[in-house]
Amino acid sequence: MTRSHHLRIALSCALTVLVILFAVPFAGAADGTEFVIRRNVREVRLSFSVSDNQGHRVTELRPSDLVVVDNEIVIRNFRSLRPASETPINLAILIDASGSMARDIARIVEVVKRFVADTRWEPRDRVSIIAFGGSDARALCALHCASPSASEALSGLRADGVTPLYDVLVRSTGLLATDADPESRPALVLFSDGLDTYSMHSASDAIAAAQSLDAPIYALVSRQRIPDPDGERLLRLLSRSTGGFVIDDQQSPEQSLRLVIEDLRGGFVLTYQPIHSTVPQHSLQILPAKDPRLRFRSRGGYRDVRVSE
User: Fold this and answer.
1) How many domains does the chain have?
2) Which of 8, 172, 265, 300 is deepest in the core (most CB within 10 A)?
3) What is the pLDDT of residues 274-307, one digit of tens each?
């Protein structure tokens, strides 16, 4: 299929690309309450991917094949279990445009532009592109993915200033939560060195926000530079805790990003009635019920705001 054919497909879908330049200082209380996602948990919704012990994706699954362990309580009865391909994608692509990314920003912008233009999106999918860093805060555009203005806005990005990484992750989950089809599957793709130099929030806040929304974080580790050990560890922690994975761009960034779409479309979504608990924080784990070769990847927990602390 040609590039122009992919562009025509992209133009035919109701897909909006939102490019926002976030910078500091961020408005909001120091404790981060303005950006906390608060949702009464009447039903737990859990997105996950599953593979065998050889790493091959499992495409067929029955409710009897797995159990969910929620705060050490085993759950076998699910309200629903369906393929993730039946749900639209609500994807936020986060581009670190702080000073530490100056030599990478042009390459990242071109990768993102090609990825958005060449991916076969479904009509209900939505993509947001968020750039953060610098000394001001302004909306560059909120236009169609194939719009020349959107491409021009991306091409005009310049890397400068500090890195409010955790704040942007929390704020982006808020964007996904409020501006989406309620049936969609939210996710974040992060282009960053993983080094936060200015945030009012912590890494734990960012993880909790993504977990509460059931939004996996897919973090790209650039091999065209020597990764900072602390930054790479943080990116792996963000991904592992939320059900995503680290993307290695050593071979082809575009191919790595296509793996993200395959992961989002190839997984499953289940729902179940929440358990009674006296603590707000829940740990989550999915385990095989019959076949020990199955491997599950999902978020590691969620917060039930109905429970007072």
Assistant:
1) 2
2) 172
3) 888 888 899 999 999 999 999 999 999 998 866 6
